[in-house]
Amino acid sequence: MQRSAKSWAAIAPMTALEWYGCVACWKASVSQVLATRIKLDSDMKQVWMATPYSAVVARQTVRVMPSTLLEWSAEDAKWLCELITPLLAEVGFSLHVTGCAMVAACNQPLEATPQGYADIDGEQLPDRFPAGRDGGRLVRLLSEIQMLLVAQPSKRRQEAGKSPIHGLWLWAPGSWPADAQSSWPAVASPDPILTTLADGRDASFAIIAADRINEGMAGWRTIPRRWLLAGGGCVVRLERGALPRVSLHPWRPGKLHDFSALTHGLRQISANRP
What we know:
Blueprint: E1 5-10, H1 16-23, H2 30-35, E2 46-53, E3 55-57, E4 62-64, H3 74-89, E5 93-98, E6 101-106, H4 117-120, H5 135-151, H6 155-159, E7 167-175, H7 192-197, E8 205-209, H8 213-217, E9 226-231, E10 234-239, H9 259-270
Parallel strand pairs: 8-9
Antiparallel strand pairs: 1-10, 2-6, 2-7, 3-4, 5-6, 9-10
Helix pairs in contact: 3-5
């Protein structure tokens, strides 16, 4: 088997969808791009990514369970949307589902900049308001959603032995309407959002969190020629190999490239160049 060439870059945490947006050269935020797949009311002025999470609650902290351990489906998204919509409507918000992803929209934009979901994934929830004059208002809304989910958990998830949903994180705000035209190249990934939104058949590249590599490969008809593995504050692009060599020992990053250099490589993948 040919050894895969590795190209490393240090980068801030991103979700699989954000990595995909880099590959596809999206010019708009992920919330704006997904909002183009939804028919929003004409009075909506802002859109947000809405990401569910399960958590471990301690005496003084709330730690978000890693998203790689959270089973999520389009049916779960529809349940959560139906449950939360009446609460959100009271404050001028609406919640929408595309695939198994959710987008929130509001008619009065909030001035708040919460952390991206990748920043809290597997970490503690922030113990302070996000920046912006409406940071407190956003936190109060998220707290009301938490209380609703505690009072009305999903019976279907309980019966299936799935982790309960404790909250919904709103992030990546973007103005609306927006020019967010985008391409959707085929991708192989175990990420539920990418699985339901992007065609994975005969994909030429894969996007996988490093701790899901075995799960990601299960059931694939063909093995992509190029891979993006992310974890530990780094991303590695693998090329020219059939399968990456994974050992019991963690990989140590080699020479770290500029993110712009890695982005150039991602654009080549998006164009399906050999």
